[in-house]
Design brief:
alpha/beta, Rossmann fold, Alpha-Beta Plaits, 2 domains, six-stranded mixed β-sheet, four-stranded antiparallel β-sheet, 10 helices, 14 strands, 27% strand
């Protein structure tokens, strides 16, 4: 799968001296859903804005579909649809006219059938003649998505698309995103709802303080860093952990009624077998057991905290 967006050595320093991006290198594959995660002020929106041609980079190079975003701006921009965070719309225009106008801006011929399907998919068809000022915030968000898709882009950027919107819109939007991905559209999203990234994304990127600190396939990331926890509900409470089990880093919980063992997701199958064998040898019986896995949110918080001043990575 080849790259549809290639970012090399991208940096951005604003006039105030704030260094928003620091030498970012990133390739985004055609037809994937790529989630860019990071705390507020990490550089997510700056990165998206540069690729979309809204902010000029200080250094580095970006190509979209092989087109340089500076030298061949029109061709690069025509491939991109952007759903921004802000609800910026022409309040006195109708839904149909504003979406049709957005399509025309990119030189696309009229295609009422396509726009009708698009508005149907976003549950906007019965609002097509309504002026935007009469719509709810959630409906305005749907209009922004329709505008971004009006010219049938190959790449869709979603910058915090579901922040503050209702559950119905969130469900409709993710169904639409999946259909777009199935048609070969590349989707790049930033989100504060990390469970959405965990559910939707093919790959995850984590950015903090202007630096891209990790890019990984989601499945690989969860396998490598998604540590697990085994909880044993003991048949009889323990006052303390026997010295023979000290190497496992076990923790007593629930007043000695539970024994907790934390381990990495990969490569500890033998350790689990050994642990259960030694528990039996020590005469410790358990009535039940269950495992839980570290979530993407846990991984994200850990990665970012390590890069923050005072975090593990600062030492």
């Amino acid at each position: 799968m080849h790259s549809v967006i290639s970012i090399s050595g991208l940096s951005k320093t604003y006039a105030s001296g704030f260094n928003a991006l620091k030498g970012v290198d990133l390739d985004i594959r055609q037809g994937e859903i790529f989630a860019l995660l990071g705390p507020n002020g990490a550089g997510k929106t700056t990165l998206i804005s540069i690729v979309c041609g809204l902010v000029n980079p200080s250094a580095g190079r970006v190509t979209v579909g092989g087109c340089d975003i500076v030298r061949d701006y029109r061709s690069a921009r025509a491939m991109i649809g952007l759903v921004p965070q802000e609800l910026t719309t022409d309040a006195f225009e109708t839904v149909w006219n504003t979406v049709s106008f957005s399509r025309g801006l990119f030189g696309k011929p009229p295609n009422p059938a396509y726009l009708e399907r698009l508005l149907q998919d976003l549950s906007l068809w019965n609002k097509k003649d309504n002026k935007l000022l009469t719509l709810s915030g959630g409906m305005k968000r749907r209009v922004l998505i329709a505008k971004a898709l009006s010219h049938e882009p190959q790449i869709l950027f979603l910058d915090e698309p579901t922040a503050g919107v209702d559950v119905e819109l969130r469900r409709d939007m993710w169904q639409l995103v999946r259909r777009l991905r199935d048609k070969g559209v590349t989707v790049i999203l930033t989100t504060h709802y990390i469970e959405e990234a965990e559910e939707m994304a093919d790959r995850i990127g984590v950015i903090t303080r202007g630096e891209l600190i990790l890019v990984e396939d989601k499945a690989t990331l969860m396998r490598k860093l998604g540590g697990k926890q085994l909880t044993l509900q003991l048949a009889a409470p323990l006052a303390q952990i026997p010295p023979a089990l000290s190497n496992y880093g076990l923790v007593l919980a629930k007043g000695g009624r539970e024994l907790v063992y934390r381990y990495e997701a990969e490569g500890e199958d033998n350790a689990l077998v050994d642990l259960l064998r030694e528990l039996a040898a020590a005469g410790i019986a358990f009535a039940d057991l269950h495992t839980t896995q570290r979530s993407l949110e846990d991984i994200f918080v850990s990665l970012v905290s390590e890069r923050e001043p005072g975090g593990e990575g600062a030492r």
